[in-house]
Amino acid sequence: MPRIKLALKEEYPFTCDIQVRVGDLNYGGHVGNSEMVGILHDARVALFRAMGVHEGDLGDGKTGIVMDDLVVNFRAEAFLGDNLTVGCAFGEVGEAGFRIHYHVTCSGKTVAVAETGLVAFNYAARRIAFLPAAFKAKALDFGRGN
């Protein structure tokens, strides 16, 4: 089976720090795979907060997001108490969805590279929606590092 290999982006305009907690560890004593997904989620929440939106409301009062896909490439271990820096960058921004690229590091060493595909979703109507124009503009602006 061929391996999905993510490449590092040139820059990650948004960064946040997340400390590894005891609940993030698996039986091997390092950050587990499902816990890394939670760390990426925390970073996405911080990114959206910096944009003035959240996952349940992209700024129009009715449009949230659902995850379409997720890929994580692990490159190194992370341990209890490690301070992870998670860089985020928007990738493709379309009419109804977008991608976020993540670079997780610890003391300058790459721990993981990840990518999520997210789709705009109207929870009241239970269907895919268009991205609100203001969110789309902010995402494109963050993608350019502004």
TrEMBL record:
Superkingdom of origin: Bacteria
Keywords for this protein: Hydrolase
InterPro entries: 4-hydroxybenzoyl-CoA_TE (IPR050563), HotDog_dom_sf (IPR029069)
Keyword Thylakoid annotated: no
Hydrolase recorded as keyword: yes
GO function terms (MF aspect): fatty acyl-CoA hydrolase activity
A Pfam short name: 4HBT_2
SUPFAM superfamilies: Thioesterase/thiol ester dehydrase-isomerase
Residues annotated as signal peptide: none
Family indicated by similarity: Belongs to the 4-hydroxybenzoyl-CoA thioesterase family.
Protein name: Hotdog domain
